[in-house]
Amino acid sequence: MNRFCRTCENLTALLFEKALSFMLFNAGWKKRTVNANLDYVHVDDITDKEIFYRQLIKNLAHHVSEIIFRFGSFKKLPNKIADYPFQESNTFYKIAAGSDSVLEKMRSGGIFLTAHYGNYEAMGPWLCRLGIPLKASYIPLKPKWLNRIVENRVRAIDGKTYSVHAKTPREFLQLLKGKKMFCLLMDQDSRIPSASDGIFLGRPAKVNPLPEFLLRHEPGTPVFICWMEEADKCKTLHAEEICSKNVNDSFNRWLETRIREKPTLWYGWTHRRFYSTAKEIYL
Q1: What Å distances lie between residue 75 and 72, 129, 148, 160, 183, CA to CA?
Q2: How far apart are CA 123 and CA 226, in angstroms?
């Protein structure tokens, strides 16, 4: 019976993924923004924007389907690093070589920077299962009922949410002082007056100044980056510690490397990433 239910669930997930991909592609969802970004920056091997856009949407639909239908699998993963690699159904879960010691260090808190790359949402429950005291910063969704579902059911594990809607610098600092792992998406255009200047994909870009602020007040705080590699029914969790001295540059260079490897896995193409520095490209 369990096998039959799993088969039905997998079929439903696949049909949803195909339907969503078809609708988004034919609706041209965010296509103008994607093309504007591609025209503005230079990334090797991107020669056909139509093929690129189709694959981007296909990957996005796959990860949305995974969040809706298979997200629970990540909430049941082993909490001991020694138990990996681990197989659940037809999927293998692994810890990348050299990442085990980094994950051990992350259990003592710090700053965790991530991006809209691959199934970035799935890393939350996986890290929580590994004993990382994760607190992911987010902007509340609208309408409120949707935000409640995401916060209390999606971004929650063992009945506890790992989301946090901190509003002031004092609240962010308290998370670090409490030995929490403060998580922040760092690949979006920062449009606040105190935004830092940076270079991303060879172009000027505004960067969230929060990590630099936190490190000025809590020097010595370790900074981490994680991402999930997916290939042939195998999901591998990567974790590394980066230099906190030039944290924004370190993060941008890391993300550029990921983009060069697999550009259609970065969903930041659908965002107006350079709006603060080159508003005209989106007009």
Answers
A1: 5, 7, 19, 12, 18
A2: 8
Whether this prediction's pTM lies above 0.85 is answered by yes
Sequence-distant (≥ 6) Cβ neighbours of residue 240 within 8 angstroms: 98, 99, 102, 224, 225, 226
**Cβ-based burial of 218 (10 A; exposed 0-12, middle 13-18, buried ≥19):** middle
Residue range 141-156, pLDDT digits in tens: 788 888 888 888 889 8
Q: How far is residue 15 CA from its own chain's centroid?
A: 24
Strand pairing class (163-164; 181-185): unpaired
Phi then psi for residue 165, to 5 deg, are -110, 70
Residue 187 to residue 136: CA distance in whole angstroms: 15
**Cis status, amide bond into 143, omega within 30 of 0:** yes
Burial of 57 (0-12, 13-18, 19+ CB in 10 A): buried
- Each residue's pLDDT tens digit, 198-215: 999 999 999 999 999 999
Burial class (CB in 10 A: 0-12, 13-18, 19+), 48: exposed
DSSP 53: H
- As a whole number of angstroms, the distance between CA 225 and CA 216 comes to 19
Identify the sign of the CA torsion 235, 139, 251, 128. negative
Burial class of residue 87 (count of CB atoms within 10 Å of its CB; 0-12, 13-18, 19+): exposed
Q: Which token pair is 143?
A: 């309408």
**Tokens in use for 31?**
């296509």
